[in-house]
Amino acid sequence: MATEERMLAGEGLAGRVFDAARLDAKGGLVRDNYLIIRITRDSLGDDRLAAPQLPDSDAEYYIDVRAVATTPAGARLLLTSADAQLLEGPLLVRQRKCTRPVCDVIRPMDTDMSVTPPLFYVDAGYSFGSRRA
User: Fold this and answer.
1) Are strands 59-69 and 102-106 parallel, antiparallel or unpaired?
2) Domains held by the chain: number
3) Is residue 90 within 8 Å of residue 100, measured between CB atoms?
4) Is 49 within the bounds of a domain?
5) Which domain covers residue 34, as residue numbers?
6) Residue 12 lies inside a defined structural domain of this protein
7) Phi, psi at residue 41, to the nearest 5°?
8) Among 13, 38, 69, 127, whose CB has the most other CB atoms within 10 angstroms?
9) pLDDT tens sequence across 68-97
10) CATH of the domain at 16
């Protein structure tokens, strides 16, 4: 199951998983509870991505998750749900063998004071390996 599909199947996560911050028609942040997920891979350290993954190459991937909510408890609950889904087991990718995702970091809760009332968010980082099956 792909990462986003796994997240969407999670209890309480349906319709709450996005690849960027949610904006309203005027370009302002939407006040709601949701997850932002971004998947990246190893880089060369000079703002270039590593060579494209070939069918027989190995790669390390990183999943950045941001839980955004109207309350601190809501952000923690969303991150807990995302954590449960990601750490459930190895990700399934056709013709690839993936390791179980590992939670590398959970950052402290932060507050976005640019909106009124403020939004709360917490970031977490996960990693997993992918190699030819």
Assistant:
1) unpaired
2) 1
3) yes
4) no
5) 3-42+57-132
6) yes
7) -125, 180
8) 69
9) 999 999 999 999 999 988 888 777 777 788
10) 3.30.2000.30
